[in-house]
Amino acid sequence: MRMRASLMILVMSVSIAATAQEPPPPKKIFELKRLMGQYQCKGTDFAFAGQPEHKVVSVLTGKLIYNDNVLELIRTEKKTDENPNPIEVRGYFVWDEADKKFDYVGVVSDGGWFMETSPGSEGGVFNFTGLNHLAGVPAVKGRDTWKPGSIFNLSYKFEVEEKGTWTKVVEENCTRE
Fold first, then answer.
1. How far apart are CA 94 and CA 127, in angstroms?
2. 3-state per-residue secondary structure call for the chain
3. Which end of the chain is more exposed for a tag (fewer CB within 10 A), N or C?
4. Tens digits of per-residue pLDDT, 16-60?
5. Domains of the chain with CATH codes
């Protein structure tokens, strides 16, 4: 009887220890892992809000912060003859467990800011839509689209909705360093 009780205690202890050692499920933020790292980007800033269309070169840097709960993404345009007033965008992605969606909030060096959401990947593409306060422009509905290509590249596009039509503001192709 005593041996049986000891055996039961041993089995329960092993079971509890095994359960305690199971890794937690992966954090939802890791679905955005393709935005992590550093990319060199080239593309076009289209004519918008009084600025003429011009070529743009930028660096995109993504990293996890705050105990791997937040993805910080910084897009820094380079100053060139065609782009004498480059901007920097600092954005932060989080997973909202209560609403089951990603939130993307950020600020722009020209005084703009934004709040967008996404349900997650749709065919490998992440679309974030929401209110954008662009410098010198009344608040508009914006959409940031991140489309991973091969493991070494991705494309990025920012659009605004005008009278039910999406208009491109920025479009870039990025290559991982």
1. 14
2. CHHHHHHHHHHHHHHHHHHHHCCCCCCHHHHHHHHCEEEEEEEEECCECCECCEEEEEEEEEEEECCCCEEEEEEEECCCCCCCCCCEEEEEEEEECCCCEEEEEEEECCCCEEEEEECCCECCEEEEEEEEECCCCCCEEEEEEEEECCCCEEEEEEEEEECCEEEEEEEEEEEEC
3. N
4. 554 556 666 678 999 999 999 999 999 999 998 888 999 999 999
5. 27-176 (2.40.128.20)
